[in-house]
Design the sequence.
């Protein structure tokens, strides 16, 4: 296998019908952390990654201890090198189909037609942020249109921050108020806050703007304001939006795994693949980790989940190997 692994680092040999103990689908923080753990556990591991990590538009990864502010692509490049350092194989590609084999394990098909066999699967495909259909939001996403104060709040501290209403609108506005005294809640198409929320918003000096948002205004690729349907432009340096957090899990349907609703504070805010605390799904042999399983995981949480799932996969393989060894020893004893 070591020769195959060496070849695989550089190309399609790695997915030319080869078999691995574990194939990791998705090479973000969760997948690479899982692969690193499995490589160090002396497992043959292949990572297949289509290169679209969720935080790609951001300048830096924040709250990742020891690498605060590192560019997302740099963190993943370091991770890839670390995985390869323990014999892991990484292939750029997209898994388009997964099926269970009658003889055990799984068969994966890549977009380029390559196939690969896996005894176990670790699925770390992340999620898709579905954005409100307001002109300018997608263009400024991850730069001045933001979702998470812990990822971006420090960078926009003390500036004019807009919050686009959606689920838990008043709560989100109060949260962003921690980073700036200049916060405006745009109700857009959402219902009005209730009396208690209005009281809290007013007490914290948060303006509430009624009326639909028509578009974002930008100059030189930077947000300057929020334009309402009536034409009024409210100056803003950053706009917080609540994206719908949709699990990227289409290929798991063929294995019998469908996403379930993700709730927060009584609202459905997206979907995820259900799993136990170690990442084991209802389908034997398939583990999930990172945002596909928990949309609220930040990078460090996704990495931790990848490590946990990898340890569980290794334990599962160890148990199977022990069962086989006992059966083999007993059959030798019987033959004597
Ligand atoms: C704009 C923005 C900024 C953020 N900033 C921060 C921050 O500062 N700090 C922080 O901690 N968190 C931040 N986050 C959250 C962070 O992006 C996630 O916590 C993290 O990406 C989750 O890691 P993951 O490995 O689960 O998924 P991802 O990083 O999204 O990786 C999933 C990988 O799987 C691949 N993939 C998907 N489907 C397939 C397939 N079928 N075949 C092969 N590969 C596939 C994708 O291409 C991708 O590379 C930010 C999020 C956003 C949207």
Sequence:
């Amino acid at each position: 296998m070591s020769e195959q692994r060496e070849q695989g680092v550089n190309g399609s040999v790695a997915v030319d019908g080869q078999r691995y103990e574990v194939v990791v689908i998705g090479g973000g923080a969760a997948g690479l952390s899982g692969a690193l753990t499995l490589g160090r556990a002396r497992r043959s591991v292949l990572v297949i990654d289509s290169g679209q990590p969720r935080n790609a538009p951001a300048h830096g990864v924040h709250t990742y201890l020891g690498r605060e502010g590192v560019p997302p692509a740099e963190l993943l490049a370091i991770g890839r090198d670390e995985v390869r350092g323990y014999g892991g194989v990484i292939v750029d590609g997209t898994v388009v189909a997964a099926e269970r084999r009658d003889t055990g394990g799984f068969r994966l098909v890549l977009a380029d037609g390559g196939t690969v066999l896996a005894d176990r699967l670790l699925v770390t495909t992340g999620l898709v942020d579905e954005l409100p259909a307001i002109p300018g939001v997608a263009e400024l996403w991850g730069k001045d249109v933001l979702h998470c104060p812990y990822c971006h709040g420090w960078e926009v501290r003390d500036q004019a921050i807009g919050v686009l209403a959606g689920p838990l609108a008043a709560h989100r506005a109060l949260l962003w108020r921690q980073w700036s005294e200049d916060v405006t809640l745009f109700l857009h198409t959402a219902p009005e806050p209730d009396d208690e929320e209005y009281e809290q918003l007013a007490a914290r000096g948060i303006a509430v703007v009624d009326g639909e948002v028509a578009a974002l205004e930008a100059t030189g690729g930077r947000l300057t304001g929020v334009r309402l349907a009536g034409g009024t432009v409210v100056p803003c340096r950053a706009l917080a939006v609540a994206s719908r957090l949709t699990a990227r899990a289409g290929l798991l349907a063929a294995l019998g795994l469908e996403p379930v609703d993700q709730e927060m504070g009584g609202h459905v805010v997206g979907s995820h693949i259900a799993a136990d605390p170690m990442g084991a799904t209802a389908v034997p042999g398939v583990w999930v980790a990172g945002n596909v399983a928990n949309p609220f995981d930040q990078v460090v949480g996704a990495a931790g989940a990848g490590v946990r799932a990898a340890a569980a996969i290794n334990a599962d393989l160890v148990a199977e190997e022990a069962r086989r060894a006992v059966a083999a020893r007993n059959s030798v004893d019987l033959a004597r």
Q: What stands out?
A: Helices lie at 2-10, 29-40, 72-85, 137-140, 149-152, 169-176, 195-203, 299-335. The CA atoms of residues 56 and 73 lie 7 Å apart.
